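Interim report to the steering committee. The following record documents the input for RAB6A-GEF complex partner protein 2 (418 residues).
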Amino acid sequence: MLMETHPNLSVCKLKHEKLASREVVASNSKMIEVVASMARGPVFLTGELLECLITFTNPMSHLSTSASSEMLAWASAQIHCQFHASESRVALPSQGNKQDVQAESDTVLIPSRGERGQCILDTPPKILFCDLRLDPGESKTYSYSEVVPSDGPPSFRGQAVKYVYKLTIGCQRVNSPIKLLRVPFRVLVLHGMSEPHFLQDEEVAPSNPFLDEEEGSSNRRDGSLLEKALDMLMATTSRRSPHLFNITNSRGKVAKFCIFKSVYRIGEDIIGTFTFSEGEIPCLQYSVSLQSEEEVNSMYQRKPAPPLSVTSHGRHLESCLHTASSHFSLPIPLNVTPGFSTDIITLRWRLHFEFVTSREPVESPTVLQNQSEVTIWTGADHVDVDTFSWDLPIKVLPTNPALAAYVSQFTGTNSINI
């Protein structure tokens, strides 16, 4: 039996012409249940192996005693990434009036049929089977595996663009349209996995004395990419190098700020401290916001739309008058997209600070040492203030896909009746 990996899977005729002459048109009560499930979860790193179990079942009918065998001509699966751009923000190059002639045919496998935007990345389709017959109550499970392309963008739903990944399973009965089962999943991108300085770590890894040299070398080369990625993430985000900043305005020094590192994983807490006792200008209030900047690259900007979109993902607000020191902790949500860059957009991260300072000195309340009466201190009715802001860039990297799967909007499982 010859099976070709080709988008036009209707060429998988085999014995279908003979079968078609004998095939009885299925009634509405006949169907095959198809269930696809990603056992490890719906989040993957680029370059990682995606595995999915696809089960085909001919359910036993309890309403009819004339249950019969069901036949599928073929089934295949492939990964694809859909790209969608906001027409009000992004000006894409003209595609001309080219049309896909095959797109009008419902017997040609086009994984992105009916999807918004355009397919910018896909893997070759893999045929799961040809000519599958299932008796009543019988089911068969097939395993699909494919490496998530390492040259693609991460999953992202921004204000200007969207990148959405899906695993699409195409199934077809004889002389019937193709049915598509889609399982969406999330992709994280970790840059630097192929850099020489990281790959050299394998050469100094301890070897297994029970394997011969050639086999041991092969196992080290084929080691888990996920383990390498997690080691790289841990090494990169565990380095602590405190950064000190003097916060000043036009009138003088307000405070000293300390942050312990500038590179974080999604899911981590960003911790910073303020020392106001060293300031000359009274600070009444400060706020810190975790923000992402989505910038459309200049050649794709739609004028007069703003090229930069800012989204806040958390905020800490605190009153700090007469406070010697203070700190904040901002968690990075697990469902956000780490920083990345494509030809069209760049996503960056920053901490946005806002300070409210007094123009005049504010005397602190005094309490006499031997005072026995209760003293109530109230703030001034009117205070002349200045406000100013400051942005501190930070880097946000991915995390363990299994951890990100806990908050994923996807389940990694989907089903369809054919």
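Helices lie at 16-22, 196-199, 213-221, 225-237, 401-404. The committee is asked to note this result when reviewing the revised timeline.
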